Automatic annotation (TrEMBL):
Name this polypeptide is given: Endonuclease V
Keywords on record: Cytoplasm, DNA damage, DNA repair, Endonuclease, Hydrolase, Magnesium, Metal-binding, Nuclease
Originating species: Streptomyces roseoviridis
Subcellular location(s) of the protein: Cytoplasm
Cofactor(s) demanded: Mg(2+)
Gene for this chain: nfi
HAMAP family referenced in this protein's UniProt entry, alphabetically: Endonuclease_5
Family membership: Belongs to the endonuclease V family.
InterPro entries listed in its UniProt record: Endonuclease-V
Site residues (Interaction with target DNA), renumbered to this chain: 84
Catalytic reaction annotation: Endonucleolytic cleavage at apurinic or apyrimidinic sites to products with a 5'-phosphate
Amino acid sequence: MTIIGIPQGWPADERTALAVQEDLRGRLELGEPGPGVGEGNVTGVDVAYDDERDLVAAAAVVLDARTLDVVAEATAVGRVSFPYVPGLLAFREVPTVLAALGRLTADPGLLVCDGYGLAHPRRFGLASHLGVLTGLPSIGVAKNPFTFGYEQPGEQRGEFSALVAEGETVGRALRTRAGVKPVFVSVGHRVSLERACAHTLHLTPRYRLPETTRRADALCRRALGEALTAQSG
DNA sequence: GCGACAG
DNA sequence: ATCTTGTCGC
């Protein structure tokens, strides 16, 4: 197994990361509708950590958007490239995720990330970074509301409310299962919020979280486990 | 000023 | 994210 290194020039401190983030944000494309629901491929990405051994495993799982069948999958294991700092999560996950995406043999299509896009202190979260860096349309589907405010959406699947920050709508609290805690959807790159939510509903025929992130989550945990076994025990 | 804060 | 048993339910 190969453990990928941290890329040359990758930010090592908060100040540099903030500057890089601001630069990437200048390349963000908003307002485009993005691919239609059920069209082409849709790819879930996620990572798992072992802080003890300073390892991070990433997984990318490509699904046929129409059938939700797995079309391709890839993993990568790397060194943790940045400490966890709220607002700078992307700098911790991006290098290894890009390595996994690079190993895919199928067109990723739309990227579905475990975290935020526009719903971010500086309106540029993990999904935005991955979208801009790959050029792919991307959305963020998070499990928690972070620091944002929202009204409880209606109890039925498909109902939603605005995620608000500084009086501005940055995403939606979307109910994917009746009576279950909503997920928090925001735009990453080249996809409208309306369509991001439609994709999310299409990807949640059975569970609260999208099939993409469920599959990527399971795969990156498995990859991390295998990496630890391979390392020693 | 201090704490909380996606994963 | 991760530390973690049993348990309820499909």
